[in-house]
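Cross-posting from the chemistry board since nobody answered there.

I work mostly on the small-molecule side, so proteins are not my area. We synthesized flavin-adenine dinucleotide and want a rough idea of how it might sit in this target. Sequence and SMILES are below. Is it possible to get a predicted 3D structure of the two together?
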Amino acid sequence: MLTTPAEHHLVLLGGGHSHLAVLRRWAMRPQPGVRLTVVARELHTPYSGMLPGLVAGHYDFDDVHVDLGPLAVAAGARLIHDEVAGLDAAGKRLHFADRPSLRYDTLSVNSGATPSVRGIAGDVDSLRLVKPISRFLPGFDAVCTRLASAAAPIDIVVVGGGPGGVELVLALAHRLTRTGLRDRARLALASASARLLAGHGQAVARAMLSELQHARVSVLSGAEVVAVESGVLVCADGSRLAADETFWVTGVEAPRWTRESGLAVDAAGFIEVGPTLQSVSHDDVFAAGDVAALGFAPRPKSGVFAVRAGEVLARNLPAWIRGERLRRFRPQRRALYLISTGNRRAIVSRPGVPSLRGSWVWRWKDAIDRRFMRRYQDLPPMHEAPRRSVVAASRGGQRLAQGMRCRGCGGKVAVSPLAAALGQAGIGADRHFEDAAELPVAGQVLHQTIDGFPLPVSDPYLGGRLAALHALGDLYAMGAEPVAALALAGIPYAREALMAEDLAALMAGAERELRQAGCALLGGHSCESETISLGLALTGRVADADAGADADTDANRALRKDRLQPGQALVLTKPLGTGALLAGSASGQIPSRHVEAALASMLLSNGPALAQLRRFEATACTDVTGFGLLGHALEMAAASGCALELQTSRITALPGALEAIAAGVVSSLQDANEDSLEHAELAFGLNPADPELRLLCDPQTCGGLLFSLPDTAADTCVAALRDAGYTAAAVVGRAVPARPGTRPLRILSEAS
Ligand SMILES: Cc1cc2nc3c(=O)[nH]c(=O)nc-3n(C[C@H](O)[C@H](O)[C@H](O)COP(=O)(O)OP(=O)(O)OC[C@H]3O[C@@H](n4cnc5c(N)ncnc54)[C@H](O)[C@@H]3O)c2cc1C
């Protein structure tokens, strides 16, 4: 596919309500020549209007959250899942705690704000801030758990008399009633202002007071909390409120980095923008939502304005880059609020409109909110449908699989074409290849390997880390400690500065993992390529530091595929499923939480496992990568002249992997890998179409180690691996003598 080289880098900081609109519009109208990157601390953006419904139990997590992963894919945007720690407006850079800075040409900030605890004395950390929601929700669950086991009623105070605080306490009351816990909590709402809902009409406040009374919530007006003590909130007038748990839903404050950014900010640190949503000091920076200060038309911090601003921002960002005229943002003067009261009822608040309330208002609100969510859940198709090949079968046409090809290890050449090609080239048709080549040099054996792929993720830094970990896996599989690396990086053609930025991020990611592994990056080469790719040639040694350099000792210590012995147990250190999950991630078909779990598994180095392999006297090992568990297990069996038994019930799948495979979301290498099943004898009841069986053919990127060791040591070794962080480590099978006329692999479903 031809892509337009990137000339301009637009970075979206935060995945807030306004940026959702930007991403959606970008998906429908991509801007050739513009690289779009979204940086977000959380991959799920909660839709503010539905949050109280989540707390009340009317919605589940996915009902009220927009998943930024599929949205970014639809927009063709790179996604960096990290927290920005600093912004240098003069240098046009975002800074992070744990990764290289990111340069932008145009920046848009929609990073929200958090309830302010400025000036509050005492144990502020004990307060449960309502934002960020990703931290609030586990805290809320902890309170529910505490209530469930509470012997006597506990005092829960919600601090904040605005719509957020009122909705939260009523939602909480409803949830506790529904779950039979209401009598275990005394609920109170503390508000610094003299009356609730200060920005709303008197009638609305009165109606809300009657709802609070009905829900048995004590309302404490004029209670300005200034200090937190153990189990007590101290107010400015000296009064003390019993509070075993406190939810903090007060006015918000800006993040610290806005003040230090060099951008013009208001007294509270919010970025001052003009009507075009551009910073009043830096026209290459836009801001919207809670983080922006609308000096030209001040409004309360509220999601309704962030949503409206998104429509303008979505048009202004491309227009700015194209050098066209910008639109002006006109925030609603009389915004409509439908404030929920927890019990599937809501109250209308709009200047000049009577404070109507009832369940019909909630249904109306529910319909509006769900319509909003559908905009981001039913995304426009990502690519045009590919056209069918014109080649007739008689002219070699094969109806090759259409659509996207996988990256990472899913982008490897399959077993049979690889073997055929090596045979044709006269390279080792009659021998097996180990994970690394053994090279005798000056009385010792060096291990050398090369591995690489087009990055399976859009973030070059993360991709660099994965490529390094993946390549290192080959050395660890041989029992070798890495010593030195050379890199070959492929970077898509773009404006010079953008290519340099890509290369720097890619190499910084790789270097991080190589350094961690004690492996020196000695040099390399770069070239232009269609997508970002990284290959690493690594050198390692199996030498035992105590034994000194000796070629025979080195050779004996190597963990080779051909050292499997009948009777040994087979252990796998990591779960399977990265192939399907990466394929689903690249096509936007997998929820981000599953992609995150897969990435966490991939980022777990195989290095520390090696110490356990040594300790428990493993003899044979390979890393499970592109050919899937079955392909690599078969290689071991063939090299050792053994047969293998594998038990599917012992093999762990990454969350979402089996569902993805069942739904047909698989790597483009899957079908070829399933040829391995021809060499397997399936126990009664197993079917090659079972997702559990297909999982065994899923190509792994940064997969785990598959190794053999004495049967008697297997359980202790697995326990040690789990303690070391390989929580899915398990004995997955055993080696048995090969019997003539039978297949080398037997797959069982239950432990026998
Ligand atoms: C209980 C409750 C109920 C509410 N109900 C309503 C309502 O009914 N209607 C209404 O209009 N408003 C409501 N609000 C207010 C509303 O939640 C906020 O005004 C709104 O969320 C602000 O949206 P935003 O787009 O500015 O940012 P947010 O939606 O907060 O999004 C911020 C984004 O930035 C990311 N981010 C933050 N910091 C960083 C960083 N340093 N680096 C990288 N990424 C970062 C986050 O991960 C997230 O993606 C409610 C608030 C609460 C607490």
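Reply from a structural biologist on the board:
Welcome over. Reading the output above for you: The domain at 560-752 is CATH 3.90.650.10 (Phosphoribosyl-aminoimidazole Synthetase; Chain A, domain 2). The radius of gyration is 30 Å. Happy to explain the token format if needed.
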